[in-house]
Amino acid sequence: xxxxxxxxxxxxxxxxxxxxxxxxxxxxxxxxxxxxxxxxxxxxxxxxxxxxxxxxxxxxxxxxxxxxxxxxxxxxxxxxxxxxxxxxxxxxxxxxxxxxxxxxxxxxxxxxxxxxxxxxxxxxxxxxxxxxxxxxxxxxxxxxxxxxxxxxxxxxxxxxxxxxxxxxxxxxxxxxxxxxxxxxxxxxxxxxxxxxxxxxxxxxxxxxxxxxxxxxxxxxxxxxxxxxxxxxxxxxxxxxxxxxxxxxxxxxxxxxxxxxxxxxxxxxxxxxxxxxxxxxxxxxxxxxxxxxxxxxxxxxxxxxxxxxxxxxxxxxxxxxxxxxxxxxxxxxxxxxxxxxxxxxxxxxxxxxxxxxxxxxxxxxxxxxxxxxxxxxxxxxxxxxxxxxxxxxxxxxxxxxxxxxxxxxxxxxxxxxxxxxxxxxxxxxxxxxxxxxxxxxx
Length: 441
Prior knowledge:
Helix content: 40-55%
Structural class: alpha/beta
CATH architecture of the largest domain: 3-Layer(aba) Sandwich
Number of domains: 4
Strand order of the largest sheet: 2-1-3-4-5
Radius of gyration: 28 Å
Oligomer: single chain
Number of strands: 16
CATH superfamily of the largest domain: P-loop containing nucleotide triphosphate hydrolases
Largest sheet: 5 strands, parallel
Strand content: 5-15%
Distance between the termini: 42 Å
CATH topology of the largest domain: Rossmann fold
């Protein structure tokens, strides 16, 4: 990681540069805002540490110009005038974090390591997105939120392996798309991906569907038939709704996974298979194991690697992008009014991406004119009021962290902590109660 240090105090710059280079980071230094901007335009910088108050140009002005050049650059503001108001101001500018002077170098290093990890996640997510675009996969993965980046980063790391993957998530989150992505990102991508909905197969046909049957093995078996595992040989099999399997068939599936062999119904010969298993469920399999509804040995066999697909309410940043994608997918020559979009983001979408897709289909079909307005929304969405917004949530996190830091520094003496924060003790107690911070005194 290359770090740009911006401070008009030479001693502070040299101290930070020496410390960070000992930790293995590359550094650049600037004594003022204009010099920092010149360096920033010439070098690939991933993180900027910048003093808030400098002689030629304040740090917030410099960062605003840097963000215009590179919106994704990570930034830490360093200030000798720490307060909640300062935190709110710099967060609105898009600053990732801030620290007060005198600097706690261990705390700084901890924050930098966190950013380093986030950059690794972004890089791995980009690998996946580029693969989808370059290889023209027969599906799209939409979303640039932090949650989606973390998910795609995991996909990037586990796809090349041979291990079984258990994909968990609520109904409608897109678990089947993630299974397809894993297959197409693996070395098995040129072989078949066989998809099986375990909840949709009648119990009396399940064994035949998965393992195949011989001619005459039961009434109606007029010809030999390969099962899904055989069809997926050398490729992958996706077992959707795996939590719906009966205990009887769980035992048969376990044998197949352990021995890598299948026996057709009515057959006597074991057929070797080389198939990677991807399974998905919206149920809590661990709880089902505890309650005796799911075999523990099968659970551990499937859950070598686990992915959790986040619900849409946990990645609201993607709602607008998804809505636009569905309008284009179904070739609707309409767009959303800004007020309608703002209200759309507030809705929790219990049906997740599938519910959003169906909503766009309905709105795109029924709207009069070229603009989907707030009045066109269903009442449940139109009247939604309880979402506070992503920025507000982030600022609340920052405020809580500041309260905890000052309380810890002042040995939980509220009078001293309030004075350090520049607020009254009464306001401090109110904010502690709001953030559910319990006094240790």
